[in-house]
Amino acid sequence: MIERKQIEILGVPVDLVNMQQARQSFEELMSKEGCSLIVTPNSEIIYNANKDIELKSILRSADLVIPDGIGLIYASKILGHPLQERVTGIDFLNNTLDWLNENKGSVFLLGGKPGIASLAAEKIKQAFPNLIVVGTHHGYFSSEDEKEIVEMINSSNADFLCVAMGAPKQEKFIARHKQNLKVKAAIGVGGSLDVWAGAVKRAPEFYQKHGLEWLYRLIKQPSRYKRMIALPLFVIKVLKSKYTK
Fold first, then answer.
1. pLDDT digits over 27-52, tens only?
2. Is residue 192 within 8 Å of residue 166, measured between CB atoms?
3. Which residue intervals of 103-229 are DSSP H helices?
4. Over the stretch 50-105, which tens digit does the pLDDT of each residue have?
5. How far apart are CA 116 and CA 195, in angstroms?
């Protein structure tokens, strides 16, 4: 069993893992009883968690907390415990799908606009022929429908659940139903299904390598500028946390 090592950033423990170690941890979680929660916070999510007690509690209780976001790399260096590398949510998802493909596992895709999950499923099945996509459902449902959605997921006998409803909605959905979900692990994947479906183009490799995907998204969607303000505020808060201990 892999020894879990973490660094705490603004009250949220983040696993000190690179991609290979994150994949190994995923493999271990898939062999455990019950539904394990995997989260992929970036600086915006951790910053918001300090104003959202429920979200913070969910992040703190997660079975694997992956450092998705260049802001977390900066923060870890400021705090003197540098993370090995940024492990993006979509790259981690691709790794988990690859593992499931090798082990002939199954996945349920939940979220996105109507048609996105099913389109993503087709692309995923082409890329991973031994992986079984046992079900899909869009993310536009009411709280009254949640029990039925959970029953649908459970009846599919999926090993893994991917929820693409954006943070923190996706994490809160999984946490609410964690005790009743029969999957081995569940993860919030944000816009990853949109990328798989081809509805959204991922940032070019240059932006990915240099941790500038946020800048690419801002260029493509200037309306995101309000969300981007969270990054400098996050860094300032981390600096304060270091020097006010």
1. 999 999 999 999 999 999 999 999 99
2. no
3. 116-127, 146-155, 169-177, 192-197, 205-209, 213-220, 225-228
4. 999 999 999 999 999 999 988 999 999 999 999 999 999 999 999 999 999 999 99
5. 9
| Number of domains within the chain | 2
Structure-derived torsion over alpha carbons of residues 74, 165, 133, 90, reported in degrees to the nearest 10 = -20
Clarify whether residues 14 and 130 are in a common domain.
yes
User: How many angstroms separate the CA atoms of 10 and 30, rounded?
Assistant: 29
Report the interhelical angle of 169-177 vs 146-155 (nearest 10°). 70
Contacts of 176 (CB under 8 A, 6+ apart): 146
Q: Please spell the DSSP secondary structure of 120-139, one letter per residue.
A: HHHHHHHH-TT-EEEEEE-S
Q: Is the pTM of this model over 0.90?
A: yes
Is the residue at 130 inside a domain?
Answer: yes
| H or E element, residue 15 | strand 12-15
**Element (DSSP H or E) covering residue 25:** helix 19-29
Same domain as 141, residue 62: yes
